[in-house]
């Protein structure tokens, strides 16, 4: 039986990973952030995985409000370094903003 990383990499072989910015896996779901049209399901080693697809700009705009749902719940094994940096910068900026608002609330 393949582990999660091997399953994800096998699934990426079934799409053109040159256009995939980020890919992750969570049990029977595969997250693909890509500009390609991809199938709704990908089969690896006889097991079907539901594909959750986001366009790169849409994913960046939603990652702060849906951080747990679309980022943290997946094991990310494949990403473009510059794109992951954008995601992490966006998330850290949002966290700093939340912390400063909490500090202001505590001081008033």
Task: Give keywords.
about 110 residues, alpha+beta, Beta Polymerase, domain 2, five-stranded mixed β-sheet, about 45% helix
Give a summary of the structure in a few sentences:
The protein has a single domain (2-105), classed as Beta Polymerase, domain 2 (2-Layer Sandwich). Helices cover 45% and strands 28% of the residues. The protein is built from 4 helices and 5 strands, in the order H-E-E-E-E-H-H-E-H.
Write down how many β-strands occur, each being a DSSP E stretch of 2 or more residues. 5
The unreliable regions are none
Count up the helices: 4
The spatial strand order of the largest sheet comes to 3-4-2-1-5
Shape: elongated
Task: Give me the CATH fold name.
Answer: Beta Polymerase, domain 2
Largest sheet: 5 strands, mixed
Please, could you describe this protein's structure?
This protein is α+β, with helices and mostly antiparallel strands. It has a single domain (2-105), classed as Beta Polymerase, domain 2 (2-Layer Sandwich). It contains four helices and five strands. Strands 3-4-2-1-5 form a five-stranded mixed sheet. The protein is elongated and about 60 Å long.
